[in-house]
Amino acid sequence: QVRLVESGGGLVQAGGSLRLSCAAFGSIFKLNTMAWYRQAPGKQREFVALITSAGTTNYVDSVKGRFTISRDNAGNTVYLQMNSLKPEDTADYLCNIYSTNYWGQGTQVTVSS
Fold first, then answer.
1. 58-61 contacts: CB < 8 A, separation 24 or more?
2. In whole angstroms, what is the distance from residue 12 CA to residue 34 CA?
3. For residue 15, is pLDDT > 90?
4. What is the mean pLDDT of the chain?
5. Residues 46-86: tens digit of each pLDDT
6. N or C end of the chain, less CB within 10 A?
7. CA angle (8, 46, 89) in 5-degree steps
């Protein structure tokens, strides 16, 4: 059974940093493209970043230069380093095996102004 477990969310002031983690269980992690999405209250779920098995990355324009996605295949974990956070980054952040219906439960990020 595939399971994704996110952690690392919290409350931070604008300009601060957070590092999110997503641990993957029960999947061939190193072969999968992994992604982060976010969903703010009243808004649609939004793609944030992805990383392929080869380490190629892609980001939504609004986070380029501020967020970095990385992965540890040995530890079956994907990370999202978020710097220079803005109030508009406030959302529930979810981990996903890209192009599948496997999602984590989400971790809340709140950025105060």
1. none
2. 25
3. yes
4. 95
5. 999 999 999 999 999 999 999 999 999 888 999 999 999 99
6. N
7. 50
